[in-house]
TrEMBL record:
Protein name as annotated: IclR family transcriptional regulator
Bias kind Low complexity: ranges: 1-20
GO biological process, one term: negative regulation of DNA-templated transcription
Sequence ranges assigned to domain IclR-ED in this UniProt record: 87-270
PANTHER family assigned to the protein according to its UniProt record, in alphabetical order: HELIX-TURN-HELIX TRANSCRIPTIONAL REGULATOR, ICLR FAMILY (PTHR30136), HTH-TYPE TRANSCRIPTIONAL REGULATOR RV1719 (PTHR30136:SF35)
Length: 280
């Protein structure tokens, strides 16, 4: 399951979930197990899964065995570790081609990276969180949390804030209510009013910044990727270290960043592209 400290998703106890809404069906339970397995890049043992799970041992065992049988999870009998299966990898590749900005944006991401020489991100909004779709490292890579395929918080990242600022107004309150507002650094916005005020400014300017809000020492400038009709598709950012550049230095990359976003917009017009935010 996604780490709430990084994902920004709201956290509830098992009791509150059961009293507030119906529990998940079998598919929902299986997806929770997949999330738990995916969160451990080196694999996870059943005992560890059980320690994290809210389900009885017998229920969890049946779910795991079904996932293994269907190829969604693989089991190494020598180590006892469970990891994501190849069927899931195949499905992920199909999803990448059909629903991700990645294939369309790849050449523009490459061009932007070559122009600015800094770390470049491409992201989409996955429910109320940021999904990092692609990334290009700087010539001298900067150590940071982001990585293609990872999920991060929206309320304290540059790409997250510019995407929240450009969702339909009718969706915004619901998305903001799902943010955890965990304080990562002294600069993190930790309440909805502060976030909404910044989102209004971002919407007016068409650009947003991460001022060491998610990770100490990491700053970025971000712009949305919109369809020609103004529908949110995703976001792009240029990232650097606060000890080697300023916000003003990042602002110098804005023309190149906007040009790259515009080229992606033009390319997406050639085919039907799905909404970036999905259900709230």
């Amino acid at each position: 399951m996604a780490n709430p400290a990084h994902s920004g998703a709201s956290v509830h106890s098992g009791a509150s979930v059961q009293s507030a809404e119906p529990g998940p069906g079998t598919v929902g339970k299986a997806l929770e197990v997949l999330d738990a397995v995916a969160a451990h890049s080196n694999g996870i043992r059943f005992a560890e899964l059980q320690a994290q799970s809210r389900y009885p041992k017998a229920t969890l065992y049946r779910l795991v065995q079904t996932l293994v049988r269907e190829g969604m999870v693989r089991h190494d009998p020598d180590t006892g570790l469970y990891a994501l299966g190849m069927r899931l990898v195949r499905l992920a590749h199909v999803a990448w081609r059909q629903s991700s900005l990645g294939p369309i944006a790849r050449p523009h991401l490459d061009q932007l990276s070559a122009e600015v020489g800094q770390t470049v991100h491409l992201a989409q909004l996955d429910h109320a969180q940021v999904l990092y779709v692609d990334k290009r490292n700087a010539a001298q890579p900067v150590q940071m949390y982001s990585e293609a395929g990872k999920v991060g918080p929206a309320y304290c990242t540059g790409v997250g804030k510019v995407m929240l600022a450009h969702v339909p107004t009718s969706d915004l309150d619901g998305l903001v209510s799902q943010q955890s507002f965990h304080r990562f650094t002294p600069n993190t916005l930790t309440d909805a009013p502060a976030l909404l005020a910044e989102l209004a400014q971002i919407r007016a300017d068409g650009v947003g910044f991460d001022r060491e809000e998610h990770e100490p020492g990491i700053i970025c400038i971000a712009v949305p990727v919109l369809s020609r009709r103004g529908r949110l598709l995703g976001a792009m950012s240029v990232t650097g270290r606060a000890d080697s550049m300023t916000e003003q230095d990042l602002a110098a990359y804005l023309p190149a960043l906007r040009a790259a976003a515009t080229r992606i917009t033009e390319d997406t017009e050639a085919w039907r592209f799905p909404d970036a935010q999905g259900p709230a």
